[in-house]
Structure prediction request, 387 residues.
Amino acid sequence: MKSSSRRNFLAAGAALPAVALANAPLDKRKTTTLPELNAAPSLTYRTIGKTGLKVTSVGFGCMITSDASVIEKAADSGITYFDTARGYQGGNNERMVGAALKNYRKNLVLSSKSHASTKQQALDDLDTSLTELGTDHLDIWYLHAKTRPDEVTPELLEAQQIAKKAGKIRFAGVSTHGGQPELMPALTANPNVDVILTSYNFSMDPQMEKLIANAAAAGKGIVAMKVMAGGFRRMKPADPLYGKLKQDGALFAALKWVLKNPNVHTTIPSMTDMDQLDENLRAMSTGFTKSDEQMLTARLEAIGPFYCRMCGGCTGTCRQGIPVANVLRYLTYADGYGQFSLGREQFRTLPAEIQAVRCGDCGECTVQCRNGVRVVQRLMRAQEWFA
Prediction:
């Protein structure tokens, strides 16, 4: 996708109607900067597809949170949707989330995920998740990190239906980091899928707008993740990418960009401290402005060489067999989210022969990114850090 088309995506998105979720419409004509926002934020709510689950438009993605007090504060502040997964933090994230939310559970929507590939493994994961979270059911249970329709197998869908009948889950979902052009329509057409958790941010191909709209029109719940397009919130000044990617207000604008889409029913940005929580809460009551659009256009140019949009265009193109998009995502965990151990942990799930590959040994790279990511440099950075 060309740079001009991405800018058009931002401009087209800015024209979307405001979502009438509060008592009065958001005033899009007013430009409000973060220092001016001293009043307590107003919460806005949306319903997740046909599930009937009414949640705050900003939820809480717990993947990289290690401070339970931030989760508790979010619940106290009124956030009603919290998302975790069986594999987060080596399996420990669910336990921490469950402990933090034990006094709030009956008023919240809680979701988790399984990366299992078989029915029995998935059901076993679910039982473990329920135990760790200290609850008798999940409101949404996702089949995690699928990229192709054939990965959403009848066996896994059967596991979700078994769990529904047993009262262990209320609704069945599928999460996807990439592969949307093929996977999203398949999920939209599948009557057993209630909710789709998908990557969605200002950097992605404009076709995502239509894919999400079609899914929402079919009654699917739409939950957006990766809304910050790589984060880079916790980057340190010593990092060589700091000067390019550190921009005050850019991530606030990125979240507002996602929220202005009425077909996105909630979002799960990561939050690791009280400042991030406060900023994300305020995004619900602050309209997307022309200055936000300009800021994101500039940021798109800055992150272009570094951030993988997970479009799937490079799938199968590495002669050494590297799953390029996955490795670039692991690198983003490290230098975008400040979670080096998470990036390394994910990298080390790759087969040993893939971990041993060194891009510097290839004479010429066979991977050409349509979005201009410097694939070789990024892969070499990941190999240097994680291998």
The beta strands are 45-47, 54-56, 60-61, 81-83, 109-114, 138-143, 169-176, 195-199, 221-225, 266-267. DSSP finds 15 helices and ten strands in the chain. The mean pLDDT is 86. Residues 8 and 206 are 8 Å apart (CA to CA).
